């Protein structure tokens, strides 16, 4: 498994200034997970057949990929939803931007022990993702389900347990890495999780206690992201990447993966969604 080490020191010799000439190398940093990794490998085969050199680094880190793109070490990254990106930019004084959507993934509250939210006992332990954007998604669903009350003035991506104004069941919140939800599923009373991660441990979407609507989930669609101006300054690279990632072989892969659990978001308007996220 490749990892990003000393991101700032890796940019010499392959920084953005050196890349704008005739270089036909595309450099990507991608999360090491099937819905990101496998479409990238399909795109790689397409792009290499078109004469591009394709250099992908696969990681599990969710912090360094944005810094690596910002530093010019990589052209793009593919690992995050746009609400996470908005919060990351604000927290780190960056201006990385999404350049096209890839897929939407339904997320919800699941439980091994209980069949409804109402059955959750007083003091139930609920696991939420530790990152702010996804943490707020779980809190919003619990509020919509009537278990808690929240400060409705806060955007979802900024919600935290500190914004809970009423918690009559005295729910106990455990914050965990979003990728480890499947590992603790049996150890807590309920989890907020991505359907694809739970499907990997044979928890089916129909077992969900409460699920996000399509519109609730859109700000959390997964996107390929780049430095600002990438589309305008390097249109050939942008079009090559977008065409390969939005190709029919990639669409078919998503259709086959987990019986089509993930929905390609190729036709979603990335600029409108990004404007909406930043206005919230």
Automatic annotation (TrEMBL):
GO terms for cellular component: membrane. Keywords: Lipoprotein, Membrane, Palmitate, Signal. It is found in: Membrane. Its main location: membrane. Signal peptide: none annotated. InterPro entries: Lipoprotein_NlpA. It is a lipid-anchor. Belongs to the NlpA lipoprotein family. PANTHER family: D-METHIONINE-BINDING LIPOPROTEIN METQ, METHIONINE-BINDING LIPOPROTEIN METQ. This is Metal ABC transporter substrate-binding protein. It comes from Nesterenkonia jeotgali.
């Amino acid at each position: 498994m490749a990892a990003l080490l000393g991101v700032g020191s890796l940019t010499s010799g392959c920084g953005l200034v050196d890349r704008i000439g005739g270089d036909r190398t595309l450099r990507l940093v991608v999360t090491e997970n099937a819905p990101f990794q496998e479409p990238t490998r399909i795109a790689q085969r397409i792009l290499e057949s078109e004469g591009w050199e394709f250099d992908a680094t696969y990681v599990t880190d969710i912090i360094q990929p944005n810094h690596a793109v910002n530093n010019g070490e990589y052209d793009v990254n593919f690992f995050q939803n746009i609400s996470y990106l908005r919060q990351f930019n604000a927290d780190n004084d960056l201006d990385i931007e999404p350049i096209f959507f890839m897929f939407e993934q339904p997320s919800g509250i699941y439980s091994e022990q209980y069949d409804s939210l109402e059955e959750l006992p007083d003091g139930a332990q609920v696991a939420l993702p530790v990152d702010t954007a996804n943490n707020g998604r779980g809190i919003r669903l619990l509020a919509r389900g009537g278990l808690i009350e929240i400060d409705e003035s806060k955007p979802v991506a900024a919600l935290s347990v500190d914004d809970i104004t009423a918690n009559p069941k005295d729910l106990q919140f455990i914050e965990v890495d979003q990728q480890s939800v499947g590992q603790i599923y049996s150890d807590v009373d309920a989890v907020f999780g991505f359907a694809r991660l739970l499907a990997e441990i044979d928890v089916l979407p129909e077992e969900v206690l409460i699920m996000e609507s399509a519109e609730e989930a859109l700000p959390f669609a997964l996107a390929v992201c780049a430095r600002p101006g990438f589309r305008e300054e390097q249109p050939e690279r942008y079009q090559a990447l977008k065409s390969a990632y939005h190709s029919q072989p990639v669409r078919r892969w998503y259709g086959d993966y987990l019986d089509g659990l993930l929905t390609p978001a190729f036709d979603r308007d990335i600029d409108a969604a990004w404007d909406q996220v930043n206005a919230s």
